[in-house]
């Protein structure tokens, strides 16, 4: 029998969560915070496919944004991505919870889509990582379907893993999830195909890393700088247990410092403990594997703190690519998923017990209270994290500079030489320099990161050379760049010696552009980047084959 309430409730809950969190985005403009940088039209460049001198932290994410920008303007694309992330995170969890009760699904949706992890990563602008967060419930459901032999399940697995694999971290989480949950006796072919497909989706950033001139080893100072941190009296472990603990204190909602948060977290975990037993009965083999995966993600989140810090420092300085493990808190996604699942089922179990002892209304009260608990713990996620997600408009200077650079292509050096900037027109909010995405030219920028009083060295050898020239006060014209873009704001005057030999071509209220007239040739061609192109093509083919498999499965009676 068709039950419209049961079918619509998860969708309505997901839509309500999305509307409440992203309410400020009804205003025009762009939300620019830390790593979240959208521009009107992002050009597609080789640097987005395979960075020559930097690690591929946004491969293939940036290239996909550029392709999407061909049809959708940046302001709309940002809204579509953020809306889809929150909506499908909530809906995916609502569908994943093994229950027939509508209220239990609502509890699961709120427990997964209203979390400190989502709030902190949203405020850090890591929307690419949140794509993996939204995709994981769908991926787990697809793996479960593959194990039971449902038609089209392998195609759904590929489509669920694809959004996660657009960043290295998300790709690793998706691959680990499939490796842990998928292997099944008698279904070795499906296991090999599933693992192989997800591995192929990760190839774009893997190949780009192998062909980049950037050093694969990282600064050990970053281990302490990016380690999980305490948010209240419960310490680092308590923060992580509640899915918080991000390294950047500026992106932590104010409510996380409340003395009552650890108490509420204990209540939540107690309900999870009740639900875990019920989950083992409903999904005996799968939940044990998921628990193992969640435990590993929690240990990895703690790796940067004592006593694991020395081992992690050795890894990042010895093993190429191990720097990806420094910000361990970002790997908490499987743990957050298990918490949401267990909490929803635990609330249902408690409601069932109370309904049997008192009446049905008592059970419903328990489920409603459970649904509201995440909101009570984190009230300031609402309305754009208490107004922190505020859209702004780019000044006209950006279009003026972009037009001049496009008319005479050449490499651009962005000054001040900091990867993250504070602009007056962006309410003084820290944001990654928009130049590489706004300008249709390769932009040389600093990949070192200042965290408090610590500067974590980057891996780009050219950036290190630029920094040495700037520290010596020498002319940047000697670096061979065609353009120098200067942020024109009070207190940020660039020394005249640094700009010596350059010709000013544009001066606006916020930006100034200088040209090196000695450089007239465009930068060299892609060269060794063709292997990365092949990896992108292969990943795209895997997604297309997965989509075709899903469509074929739906057409079967």
TrEMBL record:
Domain of life: Bacteria
Membrane spanning residue stretches: 12-32, 76-97, 118-140, 160-183, 190-210, 259-279, 291-312, 332-351, 363-386, 533-551
Keyword flag Transmembrane: yes
Keyword line: Membrane, Transmembrane, Transmembrane helix
Claim: Transport is one of the keywords in the record: no
Span of the signal peptide: none
Name assigned to this protein: Membrane protein YfhO
Lineage start: Bacteria, Bacillati, Actinomycetota, Actinomycetes, Micromonosporales
